[in-house]
Each structure stands twice: as structure tokens, then as C-alpha cells.
Amino acid sequence: MRNSQGQSPTALGLFLIFARIGLTSFGGGLSGWFLREFVQMRKWMTEEEFFNGLAISQALPGINIKNLAIWIGYRMLGRKGAVAGFLGIIVPPGIVIVLLGTLFASLMRFDVTHLLLEGAAAAAVGLSLSMGLTAAWRVPREVMPIALMIATFVAIGILHWPLIWTVLGAGSVSVALSYFNV
Amino acid sequence: MSNPLWDLLTVFAPISIVTIGGGQSAIADIHRQVVDVHHWMTQAEFVNAFAISRMTPGPGSLLATLIGWQVAGFWGAVVATLALFGPTAFLIYGVAHVWSRFQGARWQIALETGLRPIAAGMILAATYILFNAMDGGWVAEGVALASTAVLMLTRINPLLLLACGAGIFVSLHGIV
């Protein structure tokens, strides 16, 4: 419930939001940060729109998080927003990785560096789990959708099947089912 | 002698197009090209660069930027980044465009409803893999579950949560 709620974003504003998320997302899970920022805090998108974008970003080739930044940017502001999303999520963190690349190599001598990073990463896993639970909550409570969700989880998480075949396979069954039920 | 910028482009652009399901899937191929084919880095240097890419904020695939930088300086970093992130940007842009033009079409509603369980399964699977990959045993598992609960119940800034996680690890280190 921030004061920015209801205001429409500008290209520069979007760029700065993506840059900030890119620069502060230690431990990964950037899409969880996007959910929090755009859906839960600012309410610029619905959960529905967000998870659609996430599924499409992951199914298409390309670095997922860059795809999602372009997708969200486009939904907000069209072409300008897409460019802002692309540049914001890549350029500032890209500069930082080059700068820190030199620095980090020397800091890794200290045990405390490892501990700090492991602790931050553990908390970041919580971000991923909370997003997974939010997404699972939205699945229709019927046999087929729930079975397909479990099958996707098992195929990717436990059997380590390639994502593309899993998504194409389970996804087309699921989409076909909803097409003929609509 | 070949041009390193051209080599970076021809290494990373094809990887960009086959990267499906996260940059992780491309790491093996990047490793082969960088260490075995082009001899840009030793095995140890590559592992170091990989570790740094996991620890710095932002997309892990910025590993390519770091490799480009070490191979050919500023322009190496620019070329490697654009080669890895650029080509598929146009694809998602095109899909986003088509998607908004056909808002509300029957096929789109079917796709949106049908993708829900798949997206949920994917996120839970990714979480499961991360959960198992964590170093730090029960402390890490406890921190991850506590952070999930806090996120679901409050509007806390996630950065604060990460700082708490880091703080807990450092303070418990002396005890455990």
C-alpha cells in the first residue's frame, strides 16, 4: 500500500524500479521481487497477469528474468516500457558484476563473506516458496488442474526433465482442457 | 588470429536462442566454449567467475558479462551481454504485443487458465531444487521456512529479510 498506488508509471520510473530490484536481489529469485513490487505493493498488475507473464517468459527461449522484465514493461508502457525493463534489469547489475568481480575474489578469503551470502540465499529461498504457494492457491480446485500441477512439479523438480518438453506436454494438455471447458 | 569480439558474439548468440528454462541450463555449454574450445579461462578461473555471478545481485546469466570483460575489456562485456540477452528480447516483445492485441479471445483465456497449474508446478519445482541445493543444513532450512511465513503474512521489504538471514547465519556461527 504505497503512495504510488494508482499513479501510472513513467519509463524512467520503470527503469529505476527494475534497476533497484536488479541491484538488490542477492540470492536470486528476482521474479519473486517483481511479484512483490508490481502486484503486491504497487498493484499495477493483477496476480493473474503476472503469473501469465511468468509462465510465458519461462516457456519462451531467453533468460527468463529478462523476458519477464520486458513483458511487465510492455504491459505498463508499451515499447518504451519494454526497453526500460530490458535496460534496467541488465545494465546496472552488469556494471556491478564487473566491479565486484575484482573485489569479491579477494573477499572470499574471509569466512564471514560465505556466511553472509549463505544466510541471504536461505532467506531468498523463502521468497521463491511464498511465490510458489501464491501461484498454487490460484489453481482451480479440480482434479485435472491439480494433477497437472503435481505432474509438472515431479517432472521438473524430482525427475529433472527438460523444462521445454514438460511445459509443452503438460501445458498443451492443460490448455486444451480449459479451451473446451470455457 | 581471430577477433575476440566476433568470437564472443558467435559463442553467446546461439546459446541465447537455446536457453529455455533458465540460464542454468546454458552453464554447461558456456563452460565448454570458454574453457575447452577458446581457452579464455582456466577451469579454476571459470569456477571463480561462476561463484561471483551467483553472489552478485541481478540475473545469474550476467556471468557472460564477466567473461566478456575478462576476454576483451569494455567492448567484450558489451558484446557478450548483448549477444546473450539481445536476440530473444525481440521474441518476447513480439509475443507481448500479440498478447495485448487479442485480449479476451477464447484461445487466450484458455491459455491463461491452462497455464496456471503449470506455472505453479514450475515455481514449486524450482523452489524444491533451490531448497535442496542450500548449504547450511537445518539452519538454512529454518531460515527459508521462516522467511516464507513472514513474506506471506506481512508486507516486509524482502531486503530486510535477506539482511536478517545473513545476520542469523553470522551470529549462529559461533554457537553451532
TrEMBL record, chain A:
Topology of this chain in the membrane: Multi-pass membrane protein
Does the record carry Cell membrane as a key word? yes
* Keyword terms: Cell membrane, Membrane, Plasmid, Transmembrane, Transmembrane helix
Give the highest taxon in the source lineage.
Answer: Bacteria
Keyword set includes ATP-binding: no
InterPro entries reported for this sequence: CHR_Transporter, Chromate_transpt
GO cellular component annotations of the record: plasma membrane
In Pfam terms, one family for this protein is Chromate_transp
- A GO molecular function for this record? chromate transmembrane transporter activity
Q: State where the protein is found.
A: Cell membrane
Question: Transmembrane segments in this chain: where?
Answer: 12-35, 86-108, 120-139, 146-168
- Per the record, the major location class is membrane
Q: Which family does it belong to?
A: Belongs to the chromate ion transporter (CHR) (TC 2.A.51) family.
Q: What protein name does the entry list?
A: Chromate transporter
Its source organism is Rhizobium jaguaris
TrEMBL record, chain B:
Which GO terms of the molecular function aspect are on file? chromate transmembrane transporter activity
Its membrane topology is listed as: Multi-pass membrane protein
Q: Which GO terms describe its cellular component?
A: plasma membrane
Q: Which residues cross the membrane?
A: 72-93, 114-131, 159-175
The UniProt keywords, alphabetically, are:
Cell membrane, Membrane, Plasmid, Transmembrane, Transmembrane helix
Intracellular or extracellular location(s): Cell membrane
What family is this protein classified in?
A: Belongs to the chromate ion transporter (CHR) (TC 2.A.51) family.
Q: What is this protein called?
A: Chromate transporter
